[in-house]
Amino acid sequence: MKKTIAVYPGSFDPLTIGHEDIVRRIVRLVDHLIVAVAETATQPKSGLFPIDERVELIRSAFADEPRVEATSFCGLLVDFARARKARIIVRGLRAVSDFEYEFQMALMNRSLWPEVEVLFMAPATRHTFLSSSLVREVGRLGGDVTDFVSPVVKARMDRAFERPATD
Ligand code: PNS
User: What are 38's strand-pairing partners?
Assistant: First the structure.
């Protein structure tokens, strides 16, 4: 039988528990999920971790889930998805404010590759305010990010901001 393969693309700088929640929801629906860190993000932001470190953190966070693969890609998302035979692109939708940008990207992606479908997933309500950019800012300014990222990401953030890790 044909496997259902999906791509969950993003910047993941860093992976938050909101992303993790979306990943755990998608793997219930597909056979294989590729969490793909974009080297060519549409809206480049001031980065925290290099691409390979973001991939490594995603791998560590989902070490218990063999159907989740973490990798990076450059160039167009649809080219990557087609090459990996993934006809589903998944994006998390937190609020109405996300909608315009996501809808535009979805339609552009489908214009570029009509066979692709874009699925929007709603995260758990308690994660709807979370974003990587806010988590980066809180971490950078000395705030506690324990509630927003998994321990492996927290440890790496502490190291990046040169603070001793807390247990
Ligand atoms: O987490 P982000 O930064 O909101 O993710 C945006 C991402 C990576 C999904 C988007 O920028 C993207 O798909 N980049 C790859 C380049 C591409 O295909 N651009 C055309 C998008 S319509």
Answer: 73
